[in-house]
Amino acid sequence: MPQVLGSAAAALLAGLLWAGPAWAEGAAPISQATQACLDCHNEATPAIVADWQRGRMARTSLAQALKQPELKRRVSAQQASAALLNVAVGCAECHTLNPKAHADTFSHGDQPVHVVVTSKDCATCHPTEETEYGRNLMSQAHGNLVNNPLYMDLAKQINGAPLVQAGEVKLQPPSAQTEAESCLYCHGTKVEMQGLQKRDTGDYGEMSFPRLSGWPNHGVGRINPDGSKGSCTPCHSRHQFSLALARSPYTCAECHKGPDVPVYRVYQVSKHGNLYFALHKQWQMEAVPWTPGQDFSAPTCAVCHVSLLTDATGKVIVKRSHQMSDRIWVRLLGLIYSHAHPKSPDTSIIKNADGQSLATTLDGRPAAKFLIDAQEQARRQARMKGVCRACHSQQWVDGQMARLAQSIKDADAQVRASTELVQQAWGLGLAQGPAQKQSPFDQYIERVWTEQWLFWANSMRFASAMVGADMGVFEQGRWEASKNVRQMQDWLEAHRKKK
Ligand code: HEC
Ligand code: HEC
Ligand code: HEC
Ligand code: HEC
Ligand code: HEC
Ligand code: HEC
Ligand code: HEC
Ligand code: HEC
Predict the structure, then answer these.
(1) Ligand 5 pocket mutation pick from 184, 255, 387 by most atoms within 8 angstroms of CB
(2) Does domain 243-498 have CATH number 1.20.850.10?
(3) Whose Cα sits closest to atom 31 in ligand 6?
(4) Is 90 in the pocket of ligand 2 (CB under 6 A)?
(5) 382: CA distance to ligand 4 center in Å?
(6) From the CB of 302, is ligand 3 less than 6 Å away?
(7) Is a pLDDT exceeding 90 seen at residue 1?
């Protein structure tokens, strides 16, 4: 990457380059700067060193990686500074990149080291992945929450500590620590440099380290101390950076499991999940490129949403993409109805016809100018169907897609009915909502309504999209949604009579 060429760290490394002892045959040499890190860290943090040694980056240089044929190439940089080109990717190669851009840079073993290795640092060698990830909702997940007043109201109603005063519940605003442990755990915190602090390290005496707020965190949309957005670590855990890890469904489960977003639970009860859990030890989880049939027999999350797939002759079935939405045409996560996928990954810019920061109005009219059109939807659906077609016939796939379209309609109808009921409650003064300039998420009937779209309707749609029917029926889908409508109606009747 050209921007690295001038960096101080690169210049420093160039002078220090040496051909240290290779610890595996054909392994790239380790730079002198990294050797200095290892000399201490072999003892200071042995688990980190051992983990790094297991990964490909510890034994491969950029120059070696660039020699791979296109479909096997794991790096997308076309050039790099001489310092980075011919050495293994070691401690110094990551932790001293772009030192001037990093507010968390500190002088450590005579090197300008930073703790938080960011998506922008990885982009030095993996620019394509970083650019694509920048178009993924995940990279914007911090701002998508904190810049949306309606979502922040929901967060406050959930995270605030309740205090009963004179028979009424009052909320204490949540602390930064609470937010970091709740919504921002997954969506990403803002990591900020608070200055240096001295610490006694035992064998190495007193050393200075940066004091970071919002840390630790590996939320997908983390705001980093170099100003970049997003983090690669949720799926590429340090320091092995194993491809098998990124491709396995457990990795996504960390965040995609709750009743609001029950994808992993759907996958667990799906036939695809069944095959994965029973048979994946026989599969090739590290192969690049990856061939359905030959390397594995049923899809993981990565197969349908991210991976480069080729057929047995080497023909590309679908390209790898860290954008992910290039195979997603409809936003299933209904806040409050499903709708065409947003054009921009920054959803905080969306305003509906009623001025709310939502992609549909409460009666279901979409904010169309912020959403992709029908043609783009068709292109994206065709890409996803191409993945299914690697293993299924056209009739099978079209049949399932038609059921998904129907499930989306069914779920939206459940949301519509419950929304009409909560609107009646607001109209009758039985609850206080937006028209009264009050939170729509704090009163009992509003909570029941919230569960309708946030839990049950989402579950119905996800179960159909990722073919795990159980999660769409009795577990937390159609049964709960249909019961909710009845309960809301009963509550309304009873309170109307009392009034
Ligand atoms: C003189 C010995 C020494 C050298 C040389 C050294 N380190 Fe460290 N490093 C330490 C010790 C000791 C710690 C403290 C570990 C702890 O907090 O328990 C540490 C901590 C760190 C941290 C974590 C800081 C934090 O507060 O989270 C990072 C990152 C790090 N080192 C990277 C490097 C890199 C990269 C190099 C080489 C460029 C390097 N170190 C060279 C001894 C050293
Ligand atoms: C490919 C880039 C890369 C390489 C190579 C690398 N690191 Fe890291 N390191 C990271 C990332 C990423 C994190 C976690 C930051 C985050 O969550 O985003 C990290 C975190 C750390 C931490 C803080 C961990 C903690 O739990 O507090 C230490 C210490 C550290 N690295 C030391 C090292 C040492 C020593 C080496 C060499 C053996 C090394 N790193 C090699 C990318 C790298
Ligand atoms: C200095 C260049 C460089 C930097 C910086 C770098 N990488 Fe790499 N990366 C490589 C090379 C070289 C390989 C090995 C390619 C090969 O084996 O063909 C690699 C491989 C990988 C792989 C594939 C591993 C496997 O087992 O197949 C992943 C995932 C990865 N890097 C993620 C990251 C992440 C995340 C970061 C930032 C935290 C990062 N890289 C930073 C050069 C780099
Ligand atoms: C365990 C991880 C996790 C936690 C904790 C979490 N979320 Fe999420 N959130 C997700 C995932 C995953 C998605 C995306 C699901 C999808 O696209 O299907 C998401 C999406 C959202 C969205 C949609 C944003 C948009 O416009 O695209 C909102 C709003 C949201 N979450 C609110 C919250 C609030 C409020 C909290 C805290 C009370 C919270 N989340 C806590 C994982 C989490
Ligand atoms: C650390 C938490 C976390 C992990 C781990 C995670 N995600 Fe997400 N994901 C999120 C959040 C949060 C969002 C929603 C962001 C928003 O809407 O603002 C999201 C959104 C998505 C989206 C929607 C993207 C778009 O642009 O429409 C897809 C697809 C997705 N995740 C797939 C995956 C897959 C596949 C994995 C595992 C390989 C995974 N995620 C791992 C938190 C996570
Ligand atoms: C939500 C999960 C997720 C996040 C976040 C993520 N990746 Fe990946 N990444 C994957 C998956 C899944 C694969 C496997 C793709 C495949 O099978 O073709 C992958 C593969 C890779 C590879 C290996 C490519 C190859 O040719 O084998 C690299 C390099 C990589 N990612 C870099 C990054 C970088 C850099 C970032 C941050 C900008 C990042 N990834 C963020 C899920 C993720
Ligand atoms: C058989 C292929 C397949 C598998 C396996 C799969 N998905 Fe999906 N996924 C889909 C389809 C189809 C959709 C619906 C596309 C759309 O929303 O336009 C979807 C939608 C999504 C969405 C978008 C939801 C939204 O609100 O729009 C997320 C996030 C997601 N999947 C994550 C995952 C995760 C995490 C896993 C693994 C636990 C997984 N998927 C497994 C096919 C799959
Ligand atoms: C890597 C191969 C592979 C891919 C890709 C794949 N599937 Fe499957 N799928 C299978 C296998 C194998 C079965 C099990 C068939 C059986 O047991 O008879 C299956 C089963 C199913 C089932 C039956 C579920 C049940 O329990 O009745 C449906 C529906 C389905 N797939 C839909 C899809 C859709 C839709 C896509 C794309 C979004 C897709 N599959 C992608 C391999 C795949």
Answers:
(1) 255
(2) yes
(3) 129
(4) yes
(5) 27
(6) no
(7) no
Q: How far is the CA of 190 from the centre of ligand 6 (A)?
A: 22
Partnered with residue 229 across adjacent β-strands are 223
How large a percentage of the chain has pLDDT more than 70? 95
pLDDT tens column, 148-169: 999 999 999 999 999 999 999 9
Question: At 15, is the pLDDT very low, low, confident or very high (cuts 50, 70, 90)?
Answer: very low
458 Cα: distance to centroid of ligand 5 (angstroms): 15
Contact residues of ligand 4, CB 6 A cut-off: 137, 144-145, 151, 154-155, 158-159, 182-183, 185-187, 255-256, 258, 261, 333, 335, 347
CA–CA distance, 150 with 476 (Å, rounded to integer): 25
The residue extents of the domains of the chain are 2-97, 126-238, 243-498
Can you give the pTM of this predicted structure? 0.96
Q: What is the pLDDT of residues 17-50, one digit of tens each?
A: 433 344 567 899 999 999 999 999 999 999 999 9
Please list the alpha-helical segments (H only) found in 55-140.
62-66, 82-85, 91-95, 119-122, 127-134
**H-state helical runs in 160-300:** 176-181, 183-187, 243-247, 249-253, 263-269, 271-279
Give the chain's length: 499
